[in-house]
Specification:
With 256 residues, the protein is of the alpha+beta class. It is built from four helices and 17 strands.
């Protein structure tokens, strides 16, 4: 069941989305040599508490992991794709690429967003990986219009990524969002006829999140049961926005 949101609900989701944007913007400014991913976690958790929001990720039960997620952030470095665990032992160094993913619940509605941040100067190949991943998200957002279908979003990401020589992570996808962090429909970053391909309607809200690998598309989960990494050890990039489908076109709720 895909839940469509009313204008008043979208306004509430907008407030959650802007808080997530504010947190990620602050964390991106902090990223630098010598900073730990735990430093980012502490700052994010304080910002959520000060805003009167609940962390969307901390305490979230995931059956595949068999436990509840223990942090407010996912911090995934280099070949880590998503769900990396913040740690005071993970010190960022020049040339790293850190993906920061977080979400909040504010007044009963969720916001969720992610970005990839370089640590100092990074290689040309990583610059291209970030650029193409972010471009694929923007192109996908442009397809989030009444009357289009879900695969217009999925296919747009896939076409742009593959045409630039990169690959799509297939094991993890975007999702609907609202009064729950994860709602229907699933939003794959590739066209898979086994997935539903619903018509996009006013009031639907989607978390669109391309996860793009520098090398092969394969992924595996580490022994910590959370961190997903590339199977070939090459880097991955990740960007995410929450997008409402309105009569006036796409409305990105997770940026000003």
């Amino acid at each position: 069941m895909i839940t469509r949101k009313s204008p008043s609900e979208l306004e509430k989701m907008r407030r959650s989305g802007l808080l997530v944007y504010e947190i990620l913007h602050k964390l991106a400014e902090m990223v630098g040599e010598g900073i730990t991913t735990h430093d980012l976690e502490v700052t994010a958790e304080k910002m959520m508490k000060d805003a009167g929001a609940k962390p969307a990720f901390k305490g979230y039960y995931v059956p595949a992991a068999g436990s509840r997620y223990p942090f407010v952030l996912c911090t995934s470095v280099n070949h880590e794709i998503i769900h990396g665990l913040p740690s005071n032992k993970r010190v960022l160094k020049k040339g790293d690429l850190v993906k920061i993913d977080t979400g909040v619940e504010l007044n009963g509605y969720f916001g969720d967003s992610a970005l990839s941040v370089p640590v100092g100067e990074v290689s040309d190949s990583l610059c291209k990986l970030m650029r193409v991943t972010q471009e694929s998200l923007e192109l996908a957002i442009a397809q989030a219009r009444v009357g289009n279908r879900l695969f217009d979003i999925s296919g747009t990401v896939e076409k742009h990524v593959v045409s630039n020589g990169f690959s799509i992570v297939r094991e993890f996808v975007g999702h609907g969002i609202g009064t729950k962090l994860h709602e229907e429909p699933q939003v794959p970053n590739y066209v898979d006829r086994q997935h539903e391909n619903p018509r996009l309607k006013e009031g639907m809200v989607l978390a669109i999140e391309p996860m793009v690998n520098e090398g092969k598309p394969g992924s595996k989960v580490l022994s910590d049961r959370w961190t997903a990494v590339t199977t070939d050890g090459k880097c991955s990039a990740h960007f995410e926005h929450v997008v409402a489908i309105t009569a006036n076109g796409p409305w990105v709720l997770t940026r000003p």
